[in-house]
Amino acid sequence: MKYKIKFFSKISFIFLFLVFMKIEAQKVELKANTVFLPLAMINLAVEKPLNKKFSIQAEGFISPWKSFHGKNLQFYMGTLEGRYYFDEVMKKWYVGAYGSITAFNIQKWNYLRASPVYDSSGNPEILPDGNIRITERYQKGLAFIFGISGGYHFVINEKLGLDIYAGIGATQSIYKGYLKDNNERYDGANGWNKSGEIIPTRGGLMLTYKFQ
């Protein structure tokens, strides 16, 4: 899995770089999400206007944390989004639609606390010292997201701006679940698990720089 994650992260940023190099420089904006920078998470984007109302944005997001306060929080995400501006492209209110693909090694919100491990009969496992075996759980896999977004683009001056936004999406994941104390499967499956949910999947405050 670690080789897949490294490969995916390289492909995502190569794609982002190529998009940036090939599109025309006029009015292209380079963006950095200020919300996640203090956490050493990298979220960069490039937005290109298509006409007076529509734009397209390519985005990459990396959380490198194999352990963040003792919790797995490692993921690599690539996103492509189309935007419609109600006033003028890259100004004021807009709505958008996006698709993302993510490789992850994380602990889902409902697996953040340690809990007992049960055997095949449904009984708690007992350690050699007589205590019940208790451990946390984590998940590795891929997620595919399709969602809608909205936001507001502030113009500070000819070069700088702020882009505040949020998005909610339908997420389809394939993953394998592991116990943290021995890295063995906890879900009793041989292949991939599958799950689907509708959750907030993106958001932040991006500092933007426009190339004229």
What secondary-structure arrangement, pairings included, does this model have?
Blueprint: H1 2-22, E1 28-33, E2 42-49, E3 54-68, E4 71-85, E5 92-106, E6 115-116, E7 134-135, E8 137-155, E9 160-179, E10 193-211
Antiparallel strand pairs: 1-2, 1-10, 2-3, 3-4, 4-5, 5-8, 6-7, 8-9, 9-10
Organism: Chryseobacterium formosus
InterPro entries: DUF3575 (IPR021958)
Pfam family, one: DUF3575
Provide the helix percentage: under 10%
Mean pLDDT, to the nearest integer, reads 85
Largest sheet entry: 8 strands, antiparallel, barrel
Task: Spell the H/E element sequence.
Answer: HEEEEEEEEEE
Biggest sheet: strands side by side, in what order? 1-2-3-4-5-8-9-10
Class by SSE composition: mainly beta
- The tally of beta strands, per DSSP, is 10
Global shape: elongated
Q: State the helix count.
A: 1
Oligomer: single chain
Low-confidence stretches: none
- The termini sit apart by 42 Å
- Rounded to the nearest angstrom, the radius of gyration is 21 Å
Organism: Chryseobacterium formosus
Pfam families: DUF3575
Protein name: DUF3575 domain-containing protein
InterPro entries: DUF3575
